[in-house]
Amino acid sequence: NEAMKKVDKYKRKFSQVHDMRNLPKRAPNPMKDLSWRERVVPGFTLQTLSGNATWLEFDPQVYYKLNGNLSAGIGGMYRFSMNPDKLTFDDFGSMWGAKIFAQYHVIKGFFVRGEGQYVCWKPWDLKLTDPNYVDHTFVAAAGIGKSYQIAKKLKGNIQTLYHFHWEGMDPYKPKVMIRIGFDFSLKKREEKHWEK
Predict the structure, then answer these.
(1) CB atoms within 10 A of CB 195
(2) How many CB atoms lie within 10 A of CB 98?
(3) Which of 36, 42, 124, 156 could form a disulfide with 62 if both were Cys (CB 3.0 to 4.6 A apart)?
(4) Residue 41 in this model has a pLDDT that exceeds 60
(5) Does residue 158 register a pLDDT over 70?
(6) CB–CB of 96/78 below 8 Å?
(7) Is the pTM of this model over 0.85?
């Protein structure tokens, strides 16, 4: 029966173990023997917002693979106008800030993500009357995402996050944010035997 099959499986697996104290106390970390190039992943995310103009937010980021499922990282945020008549260098500083985040891979490319942001931004409603005013606020967001392979060293992803803020005005008008992202592999190309 199934129970006996499982017992036989574990007997074969630990047949050389003569003392229970030698059994591993936790599952080994599959990332332990990988180089930093295989654990550090740079990338960026993009999202658009609309108000009195259409804005593009560019968020560079880098994360570190803690184990096979969990990653943690840091990033920045930068927003500028996409309207042709407002595409000036003075308008590129509409929003800037920093973030920390964590991601947990669930299954088949799906992951859950949580992040905290510190945001400095020029509110759309006040920018017309006081162009020098800068609001400071904190934002927390959580949601799900799906990653997919684009090329050997490039992965894409799409994220859907719900956010809330405190100490200031909300820099994201809709509560639900949708982003697309790209991650780059730093792993060195393996040399073929004929290239050595």
Answers:
(1) 7
(2) 14
(3) 42
(4) yes
(5) yes
(6) yes
(7) no
The pLDDT of residue 92 is above 50: yes
**Strands 54-65 and 70-81: what pairing?**
antiparallel
Distance CA 122, CA 133 (A): 6
Q: How much helix, strand and coil, in percent to the nearest 5, is found in the chain?
A: 15, 50, 35
Give me the sign of the Cα torsion angle 14, 18, 19, 24.
negative
Residue 157 to residue 162: CA distance in whole angstroms: 17
User: Can you say how many angstroms the Cα of residue 149 is from the centroid of all Cα atoms in its chain?
Assistant: 15
> Residue 55 — φ and ψ, nearest 5°?
-115, 145
Roughly how many angstroms between the first and final C-alpha of the chain, as a whole number? Answer: 53
Secondary structure in 3-state letters for 76-94: EEEEEECCHHHCCHHHCCC
Which ranges of 40-195 would DSSP assign to H, the alpha helix? 124-127
Q: Is 15 left (phi over 0), alpha (psi -120 to 50) or beta?
A: alpha
In order of 41, 64, 93, 99, 174, the CA distances from 185 in angstroms are: 6, 12, 30, 21, 32
**Whose CA is closest to 102, among 72, 136, 80, 135?**
72
Q: Taking the alpha carbons of 191, 193, 194, 195 in that order, is the dihedral positive or negative?
A: positive
Length of the chain, please?
196
Residues 6+ positions from 114 with CB-CB distance below 8 Å? 101, 102, 140, 141, 142
